[in-house]
Amino acid sequence: MPPTHADKLACHSEGVMIDVSIIIVSYNTRDLLSQCLRSIKENVGDICIEIFVVDNASTDESGEMVNQFFPDVKLILNSVNVGFSTANNQAMAQSVGRYILLLNPDTIVLPGAIQATLRVMDDNGAIGISTCKVLNADLSFQPCYGDEFPSIWTIVTGGSKLRIALSSIFFSKKYLDSFGFQPERIATSHPVAWAMGAFMMIRRSVYEQISGLDENLFMYGEEPDYCYRAMLKGWQIWYLPGGRIIHLGGQSTSAVDEIHLVDWFMTNSVYFHLKHKGKVYTVVCLITALAASTAKLALFSALLMLPSGKEKKEYRFKKRAQMLHTVRWCLCDRPRKLLRVHWTERD
User: Residue 233, SS3?
Assistant: First the structure.
């Protein structure tokens, strides 16, 4: 008889080594979290796991649901929303698995996803961090890794998603394919710059070397920073499509207005450059971002004057608002304060 879910969760208490410590940070995602936990239970296979759920002061009874229906899960209840990094670090410090898997609550783990990822990492000791193939609800591919770390280009375009969107408008399909999401490429395993945190498998040795996520990053930007630090220690980061999950996407942040998203993105981008590349590079990034955002503000303002359908008009209005806020952010006191602090690696 195959081991039950309870058997797998109890294996550490019986002296058997835990293969994977699964950590899920949740904020008001009760039903999605339940679905995620069920998918783990049904598809974990024969590996030994422990599961942590860190609840960031949800008001939808997520904690009560976990206690009632998943009593074997180790639940950490925070009285305030401490952010993604701090919440993950709370569980990482208590974890004992050979690997640590950071998993979003709005994911569905498909059969073999964890086992396939684990198998490749066991066979290749150079891989320190990996992600699997991530799918949208309609089973189409969802970008889940980056081929480059934050740079002048990414801070100008607003990150990978905006870069792809802009490129699909202004450039050819060949140019868009250069970002690394061609069908033939996403079908094969390959090294990448960083992996997205919806499914991020971390080797225990990596955690022991570089510790947890940077808690100065409340939300967004944690993954490139963590993978960059791992790379500096000689570890490789890989995309491994042998495992697959469905990521419903953005449920914890759907209620966050786009102005706050711009604030987070710009603050985290400046922080990354200050931390890893220094003040001069960061100042160049800020000047370039201000110039590019001003140009895009003028572009979208002009496009709004042209006749268009309701959907396109709403999109252009939203983009103009984003660019306006980015310009204001670059001119406000926040970047100057960041430059004065000049954050550096704490370790």
Answer: coil
